[in-house]
Amino acid sequence: MSNQPYRTALVTGASSGIGAAIVGRLREAGIEVHAVARDKDRLARLADETGCIPHALSVSDRDGMADLLSTLDVDILVNNAGQSRTGNITNTTPDDIDALVDVNLRAVLQLTHLVVPGMIRRDRGHIVNISSIAGHYAFAGGNTIYHATKAGVHSLSQQLRCDLYGSHVRVTEISPARVETEVFGRLIGDMEEAKRRFFDEYESLLPVDIANSVAFAVLAPQRMNVSFMEVLPTMQVVGGLNFAKKSADPA
């Protein structure tokens, strides 16, 4: 561990699921971790368990995040916070569109904009964006706005590599498929039903799998940039073709 140059990380969406697992894994690696989320009580428990430094903030609060980051030299930024919704573009609401864009994309852009200049000055840093296979594939049942925001995170991750050309600042996008987290329960309003519908009969990924993926990229030798990692359950595939039948001729 003494050979890796990173000392300080900031993880968003840190109070549960993937974010909490990433916090724990980076703490195991000896990195000081600042954990950001809205749930103060869960953050306090996470701090007790891992020794992280909790910050009860919304990533959508740019001024609050700017104040926090003005006091830190962040070596690793993990953009993990995200939201989803049911439905698609035909039955969503303007508020849902704004909420998904604000958290899933605008906050990622704003936080990256806040930390990258310092990373460039120090010639040291790592941006880790947790996206989704929804940013790369179209599939029935997916929320259109969610897909669009995650596609934006993918494009950002690719372009950042160009912006940071010539520096030692690295960029990694990790794109998971189905992970067993509370988000499915929030989507349908019933975690037990979500477990029955999405997890009980499937061997899904666990948050620790994504945390280990982050650690692999972050702790890799500095000569090595893991730019993109797509992580799926062994038994899940993406793609496929849906072909609607011809409509019956009108009578």
UniProtKB/TrEMBL annotation:
Keywords noted in UniProt: Oxidoreductase
InterPro entries, per the entry: NAD(P)-bd_dom_sf, SDR_fam
Gene Ontology MF terms: oxidoreductase activity, acting on the CH-OH group of donors, NAD or NADP as acceptor
Keyword Oxidoreductase on entry: yes
Lineage: superkingdom: Bacteria
Pfam families, A to Z: adh_short (PF00106)
SUPFAM superfamilies: NAD(P)-binding Rossmann-fold domains
UniProt similarity note: Belongs to the short-chain dehydrogenases/reductases (SDR) family.
Protein name: SDR family oxidoreductase
Taxonomic source organism: Gluconacetobacter azotocaptans
